[in-house]
Amino acid sequence: MSLARFPVRAVLFDLDGTLLDTIHDLADAANLMLAEMGRAARPLEQIHSFVGKGIPNLVRRCMTEDAAAGEDEIEQAVVVFRRHYALVNGRSTRIYPGVVETLEAMRAMDLRLACVTNKAEAFTLPLLERMGLTPYFGAVVSGDTLPVKKPDPAVLHHACELLGVPSPLALMIGDSANDALAARGAGMPVLLVTYGYSEGMPVDTIECDGLLSVATGALDRIAAA
Description:
Elements: E1 6-8, E2 10-13, E3 20-21, H1 23-36, H2 44-48, H3 55-64, H4 71-88, E4 94-95, H5 99-108, E5 112-116, H6 121-130, E6 139-141, H7 154-163, E7 170-174, H8 177-186, E8 190-193, E9 211-212, E10 222-224
Parallel strand pairs: 1-10, 2-5, 2-7, 5-6, 7-8, 8-9
Antiparallel strand pairs: 3-4
Helix pairs in contact: 1-4, 3-4
């Protein structure tokens, strides 16, 4: 059975869990934060399920999943997390297999590329630079670029505006319901990778246009627009 191909001129990529495996750095920062706040460390698998909606959400879940925490304490914990994460950001991060080959192939196809993430810009831009991915992207939209984050489709519309491509002629590639819902709201197709984070939700239960076991699989889903 042949797979549907999408006529697009741009591809938008999520960052954590799609392009980069960042979980070890996020977990290190989270557990350093918890230790400083007098809380017990959390296992990697649990922190893995907290990733997806940005740092404030990650910190809140670390602080409140099985214990009470006031808003002032959570705000303080966010500041502590950001301080620790700034030091470890990229230290143990790795590029997922097939990502560089996919970006190279898409660039050769004259597709315009953007990174759209819920990670704050202060961490997104240095991480992309450290991993050597910055040159591939004509636009980067971070979690604090606009007043809203994914799943709000406004961030995808903004990325398309920066690239000069209408939203229906863009393809979103991500790893979670945040990406799928944002893409649906923006009127563009969406493919989800099976190796990402997805906030603990089985990725095959998320409504999308297809699943990718490796990034290069996206190349077979693109047609000339």
